[in-house]
Amino acid sequence: MKLTRAISLTNFFVASSALGFQVFVLYPWHKELDAEFEKLKTEHLKVLNRAGDSLSEQQQKAMAEELNELKNKSSRSSFPFVNRAPNPSEAISAAKDKFLPTKDKLMATATSENLTSVSLYARYALAGAFCCSFTHAVLTPVDVVKTRIQLDPITYSSSLSKSARYIVSAEGPGALLTGLGPTIAGYCLQGAFKFGGYEYFKARAVDYLGQSTASNHRNAVYLGSAAAAEFLGDIALCPFESVRIRLVSQPSYATDSVSALAKLAREEGIGGLYSGLSPILLKQIPYTMATFLVYEKAIQTAYSVIDKRELPSIGVTGINLGAGLIAGLAAAVVSQPADTMLSKINKEKAGSGEGTTRRLFRIASELGLRGAYTGMQARAVMVSGMTAVQFGIYGDIKKLFGATDGVELSQSHVVEEDSEREYA
């Protein structure tokens, strides 16, 4: 009970630290970024002026009228069917498409696409790498206790506090940080693919389906994007997770993470490093699908009641924390059986002639439904707190790296397009 309270206090401290970081550090940087944006806008206007010099007087007049029309649209916030004003990039893009010569247009489009595909998604990936590695590192002690309970429920009770005290008394406090190195490295890579890939695949789905169709089928877009991103992340994560579980289950296996990785690769080859790929896919893909779907739904529900534009930045962070907490609880329940199987399959070598599929079926039959949810209490605490902090700070971290908000899918897009067709 005491450890559970301590973990809860730790989660609260981490969340509070994130909020403090946002208020006292990120806010001044946001102001500086706003100033840089004004400079960038000035440069854009200079580019447009240079383009205008090469146009005829009639084309310049038409271009000015187009820009004024876009400006007027942005000021009509009271118009019942307009949900958002066009941003500066949209205005520039519209004018560019209409008035620039074809050659210049193609060059500008190529530059824009290159920025979108490389720079923007790299920033999403950096933000995701930081969030995932940070939160998993902070909760390493809980993960150690959870893994021990899953692997040896007879020695370790289902109580977090009792199991933690037993580990500390038998092996010392440092045992609670076993596997910290592979945890940071593995989830840094996994977080980059998870968040960067999710934003990328979601945007590609909108490009392929169109805004209206994607909004109508947004649950499928969320689930498909999350699954594709997590699959790539798991390929990168699997070797490090195999090393982490081997170190936690066999503390004498190696002296450090690097030697453990080298030993596992030397003794068991690629098959040993990826022996847990099937269960990790079975665990992480449903986990990530549930996480992003429930998070997106929670966010949409919150902003259907509260106007996001009227919220201070700390309020947005608070909503992200709450939505992340709900998403984490849902994801923990969905992925718990596969997490237990992952711990079991990475505990020891496979039997002679026993393939991964046969091992999975054998472990599943031995565990049963009740055994599959062994360690659920510890994992629920870990996953809910971790996910809440991840989403709580992700928005601020990606802005710190210069990334904009990703593609938003909601019913409002459908209503807006239907209304435009009615008035066409």
From TrEMBL:
The keyword Mitochondrion applies. GO terms for molecular function: phosphate transmembrane transporter activity. Keywords: Membrane, Mitochondrion, Mitochondrion inner membrane, Repeat, Transmembrane, Transmembrane helix, Transport. The chain crosses the membrane at residues 12-30. SUPFAM superfamilies: Mitochondrial carrier. It is a multi-pass membrane protein. It is found in: Mitochondrion inner membrane. Its main location: mitochondrion. One of its GO terms (cellular component) is mitochondrial inner membrane. Solcar repeats lie at residues 119-204, 217-301, 315-400. One of its GO terms (biological process) is mitochondrial phosphate ion transmembrane transport. Belongs to the mitochondrial carrier (TC 2.A.29) family. PANTHER family: MITOCHONDRIAL PHOSPHATE CARRIER PROTEIN, SOLUTE CARRIER FAMILY 25 (MITOCHONDRIAL CARRIER PHOSPHATE CARRIER), MEMBER 3, LIKE-RELATED-RELATED. This is Probable phosphate transport protein MIR1. It comes from Gibberella fujikuroi (strain CBS 195.34 / IMI 58289 / NRRL A-6831) (Bakanae and foot rot disease fungus). The lineage of its organism: Eukaryota, Fungi, Dikarya, Ascomycota, Pezizomycotina.
